[in-house]
Amino acid sequence: MDEQVRVSSRVVLFGGNGDLSLRMLFPSLYLLDRDRLLPDGLTIVAAARAIPETGAFCEELRRAIGANASVPGIDGDVWQRFAARLATCPMELERPEDYTRLGQRCGMKADDATLYYLAVSPKLYGSICRNLKAAGLLGPHCRVVLEKPIGFSLQTSRQVNGAVAEAVDEDAVFRVDHYLGKETVQNLLALRFANSLLEPLWNRNGIDHVQITIAETVGVEGRWSYYDESGALRDMVQNHMLQLLCLVAMEPPVVLESHAVRDEKLKILRSLRPMNAAEVRQKSVRGQYAAGAINGKPVPGYSEEEGGRASNCETFVALRAEIDNWRWRGVPFYLRTGKRMPKRYTEIFIQFRDVPHSIFALPPGSNLTANKLMIRLQPEEEITLWMMNKVPGLTSEGTRLQALPLNLSRTNAFPNYRRGIAYERLILDAIHCNRTLFVRRDEVEAAWGWIDGIVAGWQAAGLTPQSYSAGSWGPSASFALTERFGHTWLDS
Ligand code: BG6
């Protein structure tokens, strides 16, 4: 960390009583305090239009934090310490004079190290940053955290980033992709760069193809209007899936430091092969869930959800991405994500190549299959490598082989480890000004550039979503997508 960098002494949460703050940010701050990771003297200000006075808000917060599944009960002493840090500030986020009041109320000074967390609509990012600057509240040690979505296209993301850049230097902007806060995502870096075993194989010579699946059982969870402007491609692929792809595909950074890591990710994003209208027909699938059942319970279709209507928005997308560089030329990266899938999980599969020549005369029912590595991010965190084994025993028909898993379960290896909220890591890093797990402007824009090409291809090809029943693995075209290239979706 740069010597000039100061640890934040205040966190201001704009949208402090909103859904994200109550469900994720405050529980994360509480857990950080419980683990003694918040700096002494750090204060937390919840700012929003209709926010109650501090006392009443603390009551509300205590209930919200206590109800969070990741919080194993509220400890009285920790709560006292935590509540003493809190204050609220009712304000209109678009009214410049309210920022002067915020500054006075909190006794802010020009060289304070304040972390502003913008848990509000991205439409407000520009005006909040402008107002902070005009009120003299954006000193050299301040940082601004932004949530997704940063725009809905390259052009709109440039508008959002441009408006922020008028008031805040890029180095002080922390763009969150909450997948980067997940423990196993960071473990991916350890797996790749703390083991010498994999690197010689981690390229087109050793790997046949890669699959990344983020399957969700939930539907649009009461945010139909927001989701309908976005769809699975923008909501999940542009950010979370491409970040995972980057971590799998990037070259080893020279050091685990923010610019080094982000430079390598950017090279991957810039190497993604664009798809034209003819290619999107071959290499992409859009789906939208119809009524069906999840865990035996009936659920409505997308257009029948609360606030819904007939729409051409995709709730499922499958893609065959290609990376045009020396390491990955010819290795497809299949990406698949959808709502209302039968199971919730996030998995990365690395399918290695077949052995070049089999020496075994295999009896019927025995196969020699290529090794595969599965990195499961959620709900459990585990890494499994399938290796070929001889089935024990005698046979007159040759050697019987079977693939068996070598399993590294994080729960078994670290039984006392508490699975945290991804935001804990991210908030802590922002407080300490560690940018590695935050997304730089050029990354966001490179990702949008590739996504825009797919959207344009869909429009030119008239590709509308195909229906799939809630509780299924998406439209049948998704299976055809991999089969067309001689592959099948792998499922642990
Ligand atoms: C969000 C998307 O970014 O990620 C949601 O907007 C999605 O639609 C969510 O449900 C998934 O996150 P997680 O951590 O539950 O996999």
Tags for this entry?
492 residues; alpha/beta; Rossmann fold; Dihydrodipicolinate Reductase, domain 2; 9-stranded mixed sheet; 14 helices; 17 strands; binds 6-O-phosphono-beta-D-glucopyranose
Q: Quick recap of the structure?
A:
The protein is of the alpha/beta class and 492 residues long.
CATH superfamily of the largest domain: Dihydrodipicolinate Reductase, domain 2
Number of DSSP-assigned strands: 17
Here the CATH topology of the largest domain equals Dihydrodipicolinate Reductase, domain 2
Q: What is the first-to-last residue Cα distance?
A: 40 Å
Helix content: 25-40%
CATH class of the largest domain: Alpha Beta
Report low-confidence residues grouped into runs of 5 or more. none
Q: Name the structural class.
A: alpha/beta
Widest β-sheet, arrangement of strands: 16-15-14-13-7-12-11-8-17
What does it look like?
Helix 8 crosses helix 13. The chain has helices at residues 19-34, 54-66, 76-85, 96-105, 125-134, 154-165, 183-193, 224-249, 258-271, 277-283, 410-413, 422-431, 441-461, 476-483, and strands spanning 10-14, 43-48, 86-90, 114-118, 143-146, 173-175, 207-215, 284-290, 292-294, 297-299, 316-321, 333-338, 345-352, 372-378, 382-390, 401-409, 466-469. The mean pLDDT is 95. The chain is of the alpha/beta class and 492 residues long. Helix 6 links the parallel strand 5 and strand 6 (173-175). The protein has 14 helices and 17 strands. Strands 16-15-14-13-7-12-11-8-17 form a nine-stranded mixed beta sheet, sandwiched between helices. It has a six-stranded parallel beta sheet with strand order 3-2-1-4-5-6, sandwiched between helices. The longest helix has 26 residues, at 224-249. The chain has two domains: 3-147, Rossmann fold, CATH 3.40.50.720; 180-419 and 440-483, Dihydrodipicolinate Reductase, domain 2 (2-Layer Sandwich), CATH 3.30.360.
